[in-house]
Q: What sequence folds into this?
């Protein structure tokens, strides 16, 4: 088997040389465990928070340890009756070609009757889609008629959140993305009312205000403090901010991270801001996945993938997330059966 480990702590934006490819013997499962051959692995911006040597909402990853990530694969050796050989599963597997699982924690079986691509179970039907679902519905407390602003809207979380808002009867959904192609996809394929290319907009605050003259009920933010600070003056009465991710801030030290200073709307407009860790909602994952699967099959929920091939491509696939290179969910295919 092969795996990617942390070779050097990241200082600023991650670089491919921060990681190392290792080869090891294929592990054998013990009693009650099973071995999974990975077919797809994901790269996730939130992984960055563990790669600088300091703790965040998760402990720092020690040097030499495999990188975290989500995977979908097939059980190829088992001493667990609940997961016989041939079972397709999605799970927290990491950047490797094989892993040993116990059946506990974040793991689920891909429904046998599913005709959807396997990779979706670490994308729109994985942590990104679940983050969008619970971030919008439980944290932002979305209601029909809400005016919704989504940042990093062409990413898998943002694109899903915006589509769920439209499907739920949003009064307006505006997305921010980093290219004209991404903006066109959001409007033409994902059904957003409008998308703004923040890289080509001289004054983003003015552009958002012009696009949303009646204000913002829900800010679904995947970017970070500067975006929250920009949007706070535009929030409507009882507006809600869901902090889903902080891709612009992950590479910054605490002293370099922008502050939030436009705080008056928290009082004057009763704005509420809350973040989420999606695993807090694990008991409700199955219901959400069933609903989103039905929406995909009905053509009411779409997605994009940005696919790499080969475990050795994972460091570059990951680093590109912080340059804005990705367009959709970035996955790495390890096995042609996917």
A:
């Amino acid at each position: 088997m092969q795996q990617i480990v942390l070779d050097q702590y990241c200082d600023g934006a991650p670089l491919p040389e921060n990681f190392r490819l290792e080869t090891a013997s294929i592990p054998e499962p013990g009693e009650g465990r099973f071995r999974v051959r990975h077919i797809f692995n994901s790269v996730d911006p939130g992984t960055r928070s563990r790669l600088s040597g300091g703790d965040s909402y998760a402990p720092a990853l020690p040097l030499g340890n495999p990188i975290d990530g989500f995977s979908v694969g097939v059980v190829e050796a088992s001493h667990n009756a609940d997961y016989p050989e041939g079972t397709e599963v999605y799970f927290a597997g990491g950047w490797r070609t094989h892993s040993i699982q116990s059946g506990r924690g974040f793991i689920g079986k891909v429904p046998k009757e599913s005709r959807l691509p396997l990779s979706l179970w670490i994308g729109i039907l994985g942590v990104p889609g679940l983050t969008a679902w619970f971030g919008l519905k439980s944290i932002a407390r979305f209601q029909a008629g809400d005016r919704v602003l989504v940042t990093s809207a062409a990413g898998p979380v943002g694109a899903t959140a915006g589509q769920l808002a439209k499907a739920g009867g949003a009064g307006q959904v505006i997305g921010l993305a980093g290219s004209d192609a991404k903006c066109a996809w959001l409007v033409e394929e994902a059904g957003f009312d409008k998308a703004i290319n923040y890289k080509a907009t001289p004054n983003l605050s003015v552009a958002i205000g012009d696009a949303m003259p009646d204000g913002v009920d829900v800010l679904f933010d995947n970017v970070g403090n500067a975006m929250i600070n920009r949007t706070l003056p535009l929030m409507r009465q009882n507006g809600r901010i869901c902090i889903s991710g902080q891709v612009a801030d992950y590479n910054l030290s605490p002293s370099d991270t922008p502050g939030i200073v436009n705080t008056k709307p928290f009082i004057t407009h009763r704005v509420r801001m809350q973040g989420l860790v999606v695993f807090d909602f694990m008991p409700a994952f199955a219901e959400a996945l069933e609903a989103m699967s039905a929406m995909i099959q009905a053509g009411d929920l779409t997605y994009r993938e940005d696919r790499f091939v080969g475990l050795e491509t994972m460091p570059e696939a990951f680093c590109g997330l912080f340059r804005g290179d990705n367009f959709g969910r970035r996955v790495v295919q390890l096995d042609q059966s996917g």
In short: The helical segments are 127-139, 156-167, 180-188, 204-211, 225-231, 264-268, 285-297, 314-321. The chain has two domains: 2-123+305-333, 127-278. The first strand starts at residue 2 and ends at 6. The longest helix spans residues 127-139.
